[in-house]
Structure formats: structure tokens, C-alpha cells
Specification:
The complex is a heterodimer of chains A (about 240) and B (about 525).
Chain A lengths: L10 H11 L3 H20 L3 H14 L5 H12 L3 H14 L4 H13 L3 H14 L4 H14 L3 H13 L4 H13 L3 H14 L4 H33 L2
Chain B lengths: L12 E7 L3 H12 L6 E8 L5 H5 L6 E6 L5 H11 L4 E4 L5 E2 L3 H12 L4 E13 L5 E7 L8 H6 L8 E4 L3 H4 L10 H9 L5 E12 L8 H6 L2 H12 L13 E6 L5 H13 L4 E7 L1 H6 L7 E5 L6 H9 L6 E6 L10 H8 L18 E4 L10 E4 H10 L5 H7 L3 E3 L9 H14 L3 H14 L3 H14 L3 H14 L3 H13 L3 H15 L8
Helix pairs in contact in B: 14-15, 16-17, 17-18, 18-19, 19-20, 20-21
The chains are: A mainly alpha (about 240), B alpha/beta (about 525).
Chain lengths: ~240, ~525
Amino acid sequence: MDVIQDSSDFEAYRKTESRKNSVEEQDLTQHYEVLQELGDCYTSVGNGAQAQRCYEKAASLGPDEPGPYVGLGVVALQKNLLEDAEIAFRVACRLDANCAKAYAGLAMVAQQRADYKHAFEMYLKCLELDTDNLTALLGLFQTSCKMNSFAEVIHYLEVYLNMHPGDTSVMLSLAALYMKDGRFEQSKKILLDILTLDPANKDAANLLEEVEHSLVQTRQGTAFCNKSQNGTQAGV
Amino acid sequence: MLENQETKVGPVVSVLIPTFNRPRYLSEALASAVRQSYRNLQIIVVNDGGEDVSSIVNSFSDSRIMFINRNENRGKAFSLNEALDRAEGKYIAYLDDDDLYYPNHIETLVDVLENKTDCQVAYSDLYKVYYKIMSDGSRQVLSKVVKVSRDFDRFFMLYFNHVLHVSLMHRRDLLEKTGLYNEELNVLIDWDMTRRLAFFSDFQHVYEITGEFDGSVAGSDRISIQRRKDNSEYSRNVLTIRTTRPAKPWTKIKDMSIIFIADRLNRQTGKTLGSIWRHTFYPYEIYLPLPQADLDRLNTDMPNLIRVPVNPLASETERIDAVLARCDGEYIAIVPGGFAIKEMWVENSLYALINPAPIRREPMLNRCGISGEGFELEGSMDTLWAAVLRKSDLQHARRSFPDLPVRQSLKAAGIVLRPPGFEELPFQFDNLLGEAQLAGKNGNWAQAAQMFEYIADNHQNQLSMRTQAAKAFFKAGSHARAAKLSCEVNQQRPTVDTLLLEAKVKREKKNFDSAIELLKRAEQILEGRELLWT
């Protein structure tokens, strides 16, 4: 009599082994991530040489990643090497057509070259992909001021503030744009909100003074018009 | 630089390095052994019939190196035994030809074994390194991750390995008890040895990362990985390992005798025996009380099977008594023919018997060594009764009430049999870990993080579970919690993962200088500066 031995696949063992041997995504990107983070930190403290070293190594580890090229573009921009910056940002765009930061970089290059129209387009493209991008938002604000075209930037600033209520720098920009657009009451309301959040905000206080002055002038102008109209009607 | 290091005096450590057809990496591996801060080494390199590596070995000109250059390929187990035959060290350490020790590896483990523990086996943690193979054949490090960092768990070790062989050091004289490497095996030979070591010693887990091993796709050219693809070979090896019983006395494991009760030998009996063979990982001997005629018909290569001839008319109780008179397991499992055998069929109840729940503390043994408690096996019923209990309890019941059937005698002797409670089951750590990992896989990182923290607090393995918790908290958006945990882990033992995590949070808080320091440390590890003298 044989002891029957079923064919056993020892599934539990294989599961234990496969869990032990599983390769997670981070197992393949960790070195890249360290270098990218380090590059970003060096960029933030203005150490362009070290940042560049890190980004170049990161690019060799993650040749398909746009991040290192965005970083290299920023470093070049800091050194005012506009051509190098543009090339790096374009590579990033080519690697990832939806890389919002790369479009913001291209916009900044264009802005430095005083090509406000192109800068405006690139900032807009960036914001379409990432409405949260503060650099693009403020860049859009600056180029709008240069071009006297406020409608779109007001929209993006409003969207941003819906997501980040209380960001006083953006609130101030929006208040300034409302004022330029003649929407004094809306501007005044935002400025009062800023001063509630930050009573020592001098820029907001100064702008509020200007807005209130404009409001008074507007009211006076309206009153004058009404008076003239009434006089005309009365045959004065 | 080596000359500047203070010469360490201590017991000789034999480092075994088997190699086969990987000359490209052997040089680095050997260099990492030669450059150990602990100098009292015997380094034995065994070429297992592969490419000639004489020039590599000779290039070191180090009198501590012994080179065995064999032309014939005999396998890793044979090579290790060949090296052990020449080993003279008090301790044995292992290094594969594509793995690396950090300079403190041997010193760390010797210090622990000599001064800090009663264990005769110790192991540290290692980085698993993933590489990208460049067009010129060189390797670029993609990551270094501590994948296996588990506190010693004897019950799990019987089930499967959880200690990396390269991180292992043990006393050489333990091999007199365990025996040498099993040359019949062609996979899992490491587990076979660590499992046997667990019969005689506890293992001390050292929470230091003292080396690294290749985990990249290129590592899949390993012979053992190729062999694992062969299902039947794999099963044969697992079965061989699980049924291996080193010579007694065992100091750390108590034996189990399984009494298999069947009226006659038939197809059903054979099937159940086969299932027991396949599904039992706790060391056992199986006693088969059957009439001589049936035993004569039994034709099997099933190991650890002991034939006990009984009178064909013997009752079930008489058969159990016949086995009890001669079996020597401290635990007895009684199993009827036809009982459903599946994974953990006996181990769930056995674990509860071996490890009383904390609330009950130690089993209350009376003067006669009677605990008064046993466990029924899952699936046990009145008509198909199966249980596991201490031999002393069963003997006491049989001596006290020899005329009663076994179950009644146990009851009369006051020995209570019950199924184990959930909290008494083994592998709680593994089950919880599996659930936490599943929660993470499903994107429920907050839940995963809490589970990892719970495991860390209640099931040992603190460092690795807190690392997992930190990563999960970060993914769940709880960055402050992630930062706190990773900072705590980094103070105890920094890893690339936790340094990166802490740095990310520092950067978010615009604390760039601290982030840079953490990332620089991570970069140093990734670029192999752990391998250099500092």
C-alpha cells in the first residue's frame, strides 16, 4: 500500500516568498528621489552648483522623468542662462507634455526676455494643468499688468483663492486687479479681509487707502452726474 | 588605511565564500571580507567548478585567505561543507560572491555573541540593493531597502526562513548537533540550516545594517531562483527540509508524536498519511498502530513513520496505549483516519499548547507535571475526535483511569480539552502585516499606518513596523506623524527610506539645511560609502 502523495504546489510558501521578493515602485526610484529632493533643496538655498550636480545624476537614473530637467532649467534661470534654461524646460515638456512646472519655466524665460505675450500663454498653459501653481499665478499677474489684460488672471486668482483661502499675497494681487478693473467695492472687501488676517500688512493698508479714495471720487462723480442730469431735466 | 586600524584580538571567525561563475562581482565581495575591522579571520573561498578565479583571489595576497579551486560543479551545499571541513573558527559567517559586508559586519556580530547574549546564533540586517545595468555592463544603484528585518520567531522558522544567510553568524560547534548542509537539496539550503540551528539555540537579532545583497532583476540569474521555478523539485525540497530531524537531544524544541488511529490500512488511510506529510511543519514522528499484516503491506518512503504492530482486534484505546508506551514526543497529537488535514491542521492548536496566552501566563503544572489542559484540533467532532496535549497529561489520565476510553479518562483526570481562541493562534504578526499591506495596496494608507503602529506596539519588530507606519502616514497625508516616526527611527538606525521621508517633511517646512543633511546621508549610503572606512 502506497502512501498517496498529491502533487502539492505549496502555494502558501510561494506567497511568502513572493511577498519577500516583491519589488515595489519605490525600490526602483529611491536613488532618483533622493537626488531630486536634494537638488530641490540646494536650489532653494541658492546652491546652484550642488543642485546642478544632483539634477544631472537624477537625470541619468530617471532618463524619462521631467523633474531633473525642470530643476536644471531653474538653476540656469537663476544664473540668467536663458538659452540653457529654455532647452532644459523644453526637454522636460518633451518627456511629459503635462509637466506644468516646465511650462511655468518656459514662461519665466519668456518673461525675462520681455516676450510677455508668450510668457502669458505659457503661464496660462501651466495653470490649465495645475491651478495650484503659485509661481505661474503670480507670473501671470505680472505679465497681465504689463499687457493690461486682466480678465483671465482674475479668474485664475479667484480659483486659487477658493482652494487656498487666506493666502494674503494672492489676495493682494486680486485686490489690485479688481481696482485696476474699476471693481472698487470687491477690492475693498478683500483688502479688509487681508487686514483682518494681517493687521500689519502695509501694502494692503496703502492699497485700501487708494481704493477708498477712488470710491469717494466715483461717488462724487456719480453725484455730479445725477445733479447735472436733474438740472437739465428741470431746464436749469 | 587598514594598517591604522587597531588590531582586534578575539576568536577566529571563518568566513565561507562559495563562488560559481560570477568573477565580475567576486572581487568586491572578497574585498569587503578582507577589509573587515575585525581582523582575526579565516576566509575560505570555494570555486564550485566555475570560471577560474585564481587571479582574483591571489590578487589579495592575504594569508588569511584559503582557496579551494575545484573543477567539478557540485553545488552550493557541497561547497559549504567542503569549506566547513577546513573551518577552524569559533564562529562561522557566510558571504555570497555577489554580496557585500560593511566593514563592521563581523565585529558587530562577534561582539554580540561574545558579550551581549546567551544565544549561539546572531544575525543583523542587510540592504537589498536594486541595480540598473548600464550599457557598459556596470551597475548603477537604484535603491537600498531593508526588506527583511524580523525578530527571531522559532515557530515561523519551522514554517519558513526569515533570516538572511549572509547576515548570519553562529558557533561552529553547533554544527556537531545540526549536522552539515544537506547536499540532497538544491534550493532553500539556507533555510534547512537555519531551521536546524533553531533546534539548539535562540537567534539574536542585531538591529544594525551591516551589509548588502543583490536584489535586482540581474539577480534572477541565480541558480536557486531558476530552480525554484520547478514546482515538483521545489515541493520535494520543502518536504525534505520540514521532515528533517537533527539528532537528539534538542534543547529548544520539544518533539511531537502523532498517533494515527485507523482500523485497517486502506486508500483513505494512505491519503490521510500523505496529507499529514505534506501539511505538517512542526517536527514530528508519526506512529502507526496497525496489525502486522497491514504494516507489511505499507510501502512508502514517508519519513519519520514508526510502525507499531498491534492485535487486529485491539480497540482504539488499546492502540493509543500501545504507542504511548514507546513514543518519546513531549506533545501528543491523536488523529483518526479520515480526519481532514490542511495547512496548520495541528500547529494552530499546538501553538496554543506551547505558548499559553499572556493572560493565562505559564501553564500551571502540578507536582506530577500535569497542566490539565489540551486542545482539540479544528474539525474535531465526537465521531472524528482529534486533539493535541502534553504527553504527561495523557499518561496521567491513562494511569489513573486505564479502563476508560481515552477521552473519558482525560475528562475523569480533570484535563480540559478545548479549541484554541483566536488570540492563541500562531502567526498573528504575519496575518496583521498582510492585512496592513493589503490596506496600503488598496490605497487606505491611514488604516495601514494605524495597523503598522499597532503591530509595532504589540508584536515585536518595532523598528521595521514603525518604518512602515511612517511611510504609510506620509502617503495618508499625515506628514507630522510621519516626520515624528521617521525621526525616531533615524535616531536608532537610519535607513535611506526613513532619511528620505524625514527630509521630505523638513523641506515642506522650509527647513532646507536639515533636509540637506538628511539627504546627503542617504546619498552617501546609496553611493556605497558605507563600504569605506570612515
